[in-house]
Amino acid sequence: MLMFVSGLVLFFAIHLVPILAPNIKENIITKSSKSVWMRSYTAISLIGFLLIVFGWGQFRPVAPIVYDPPSWGRDATMSLVWLAFILFSIPRKKPGRILVIVKHPMVTGVILWSLGHLLVNGDLASVMAFGSFLAFALLSRFSKIVKGDEGIKFVSYRGDIIGVVGGTVLYAAFVLWAHFWLFGVSPI
After folding, report:
1. N or C end: fewer C-beta atoms under 10 angstroms in the chain?
2. What is the pLDDT of residues 89-148, one digit of tens each?
3. 27, HSE (Cβ side, Cα atoms, 13 Å)
4. Does 87 lie in the same domain as 12?
């Protein structure tokens, strides 16, 4: 469990710096460079993520059950995660209607993805992992609202098409193959 919790702390601590302590990020950029910040951010994120994945794998088999997922949770999860994959695939260049409406598709996708996974996983390891991602994504979205969302102007439906087609293809690959390969659990 220590590896898992350490991963959660590392991953989310570095992700929270731009939201809760932007002066730290700016100081590093000013004293060093943007590339130093980006390399450090990426390295700490990757280490944290790997600790989460491997720690979750060790903790989950012995984690106590916190709640029983609802019977309709699997169907809802399939839909929520499909929408999340579409949002993850939305390009920022040449904004389409989805980007104009959602504004922050990656953050919104993480909200849908984590909610979906909380609907099908009631063990403590899953609640800690997906609950942390949900809490972070909600905090991130709220902070963007408080700071003032950027005005995004519609340019073309190209981004929407890329998001829907690309997200659906990635979702299908993940559901049919990658989820089992990576996590040992088939969603279907």
Report:
1. C
2. 999 998 999 999 999 999 999 999 999 999 999 999 999 999 999 999 999 999 988 888
3. 5
4. no
The boundaries of the domain holding residue 129 are 65-188
CB 179 within 8 A of CB 186: yes
In angstroms, rounded to a whole number, what is the distance separating the alpha carbons of residues 75 and 159? Answer: 27
Q: Which two tokens stand for residue 4?
A: 């898992």
**96, two tokens:** 């389409």
Is-above-0.70 flag for pTM?
yes
Do 74 and 55 fall within a single domain?
A: no
Residues 90 and 126 in one domain: yes
Other CB atoms within 10 A of residue 174 CB: 17
**What does the mean pLDDT of the chain come to?**
94
